[in-house]
Design goal:
alpha/beta; 15 helices; 44% helix
């Protein structure tokens, strides 16, 4: 054991310089799927900057559109309309969202979008006279943002730490990740738990259920079968519970479909969006929902409140151009092709020492690794540090000390050569760590 601890301490000493140097020097340039440091060295961005980067860095045509918009309309109150907001809302409704989702409200981030979603749900029931309906059901291993309302629906203990007095206690049900050969059993267990939760809390106290259609970094690219989602949707309809789809990571092609709910096979009442909406070319989020929900709020004098910079015109212009690039360059097809290739490269890691599972869909994949005893740092954090030393930036995840996830969410434009490099480096790092 003393030898093990000595070896681990040595690894920590070796790994610290890579991360510390990156923090001190920062990133001075980025292009495609690469981040450049001040000394000219580069990092492959396997994380896609945490699922944001969809079309690659360095798109000058988008930068030009942003600059032109800033010149004309750097900022306008969200109470005013402008061409950029109108154009973006229309393209979302016409090309990206289910026909039922016919209203769009812009905010600044994914956390704000989820905050707006739960306010929509609460006020919708409140104004219909169902004032006891306020609770939001969330699922284990979920993450919905850093604002207090979003954190109340998040089961990540580290992100909630110290803030518990401010957070509402919301009902939590098991997620439904089905390992091979366990589909029916896992689905039945998850659905039984959901029914029991609705019964124990009372449907008259539950306003909505919020889900990630495919889990992101907190759970590690976990997907549920269509029969699970069909029954969840039916249970929500039956009990007048609004179904909120958190599309902050899974929206705009990340999973190979336009939205994650398309991939999963259900139709939500409300969705939240961010990340891939602008691809990182602007700070923007949005919430969309059935027109009836918005109409109830407006008729009752409680429309969604706005944030001062919500729907910033240059950010809306960036989003419009970003979505145009995805369409014109057929990047959804590329996500299918390159996502399949990424899966082929990653799956053999299942047989490597220290690896618990490999799973994913589209351009969202995860490798879950075993805990290592005696460490004063999570193995996933060690992998990220060592990856930086070897020239690859990974996305760490998980919700506890013994839940270690490395996520892949590279740009849709990434080359096969770069994908191979990302996987080879991860294989090397895991081999070094789990001797």
């Amino acid at each position: 054991m003393m030898f093990l601890q000595s070896r681990l301490n040595m690894k920590l000493d070796v790994l610290r310089p890579g991360w510390d140097q990156l923090q001190e020097e920062g990133i001075v340039n980025a292009e495609g799927a690469r981040l450049f440091r001040s000394d000219g060295s580069s990092l492959l961005d396997a994380a896609g900057q945490f699922g944001v980067n969809a079309i690659g860095f360095g798109r000058k045509d988008i930068a030009d559109v942003i600059a032109e918009t800033i010149w004309k309309r750097s900022h306008l109150s969200p109470t005013l309309q402008c061409p950029e907001r109108i154009a973006l809302a229309e393209v979302l409704k016409q090309k990206w969202l289910h026909p039922n989702l016919d209203r769009v409200h812009f905010v600044n981030s994914g956390s704000e979008a989820n905050e707006a979603a739960i306010r929509l749900a609460r006020h919708y029931h409140y104004l219909r006279g169902k004032r006891t309906k306020w609770k939001i059901i969330s699922r284990e291993y979920s993450y919905h943002g850093t604002t207090m309302g979003a954190l109340s629906m998040t089961t990540n203990a580290f992100r909630r730490k110290g803030l518990e007095p401010y957070l509402a206690e919301m009902p939590v049900v098991p997620s439904c990740y089905c390992a091979e050969g366990e589909s029916e059993n896992s689905v039945n267990k998850a659905l039984d738990a959901l029914r029991a939760t609705i019964e124990s809390h009372g449907a008259d106290s539950i306003a909505a259920m919020i889900v990630e259609p495919i889990g992101a970094s907190s759970s590690g690219a976990t997907a549920s079968p269509p029969e699970y989602w069909q029954e969840v949707e039916e249970l929500c309809r039956q009990h007048d519970i609004l179904l909120i789809s958190d599309e902050v990571v899974t929206g705009f092609g990340r999973t190979g479909s336009r939205m994650g709910y398309d991939q999963a096979g259900f139709v939500p009442d409300i969705i939240s969006m961010a990340k891939g909406l602008t691809g990182g070319y602007g700070a923007l989020g949005a919430v969309s929902g059935r027109g009836e929900i918005f109409e109830v709020l407006e008729a009752g004098g409680l429309p969604l409140f706005y944030h001062t910079l919500g729907g910033n015109p240059p950010a809306c212009a960036a989003a419009f151009e970003n979505l145009k690039v995805i369409e014109e360059e057929n990047l959804l097809d590329r996500v299918d092709d390159m996502g399949s290739r990424l899966g082929e490269l990653l799956r053999p890691l299942r047989f490597q020492k220290g690896v618990k599972d490999v799973r994913g869909v589209g351009m969202l994949w995860a490798v879950e690794v075993e805990p290592l005893p005696g460490l004063d740092i999570k193995p996933s954090a060690l992998i990220v540090k060592k990856g930086i030393e070897k020239g690859v930036f990974y996305w760490p995840g998980g919700v506890s000390e013994d839940h270690n996830i490395i996520c892949f969410a590279p740009p849709f434009t990434v080359s096969e050569e770069d994908l191979i490099r990302m996987v080879v480096v991860l294989e090397d790092v895991i081999s070094e760590l789990y001797l």
